[in-house]
Amino acid sequence: GITAAGATALGVGLAACANLQELGVSKNPLGAGFPKMLAGLGASLVILDATETGLDDPGAAAAAASLRRWGALRSLRLGGNPDIGALGVEAVARALLGAPSVKLADLQGANDEGEWPRLKRVLQDG
């Protein structure tokens, strides 16, 4: 599978793929390389599937920060990453408020540490 080092290298290559619309890297142990991979993704991204990739709070925060660049994004799948805790979930939830194009954001399996009721209010209240 693609490891953290491979994800970093992939990010460099992705920078040359300005029209890439879909990236599926699920079930690869990207871990700490995920943020560097995201840096290579351009504004045309529509679908990102990083399910079960060993992500943590910094990885989720990197995805959240990237939402501003991805104006065409419709689907963000970060489920199956139990090391994403309340901080990562909240970062994504807050970023979604400024990303109206996103129709699906999957964080199922993240460890929200019992914060889901509060995060739900954040999303509802905007």
Automatic annotation (TrEMBL):
Q: Which InterPro entries match?
A: LRR_dom_sf (IPR032675)
Which branch of life, at top level? Eukaryota
Q: What is this protein called?
A: Uncharacterized protein
Source organism per UniProt: Zooxanthella nutricula
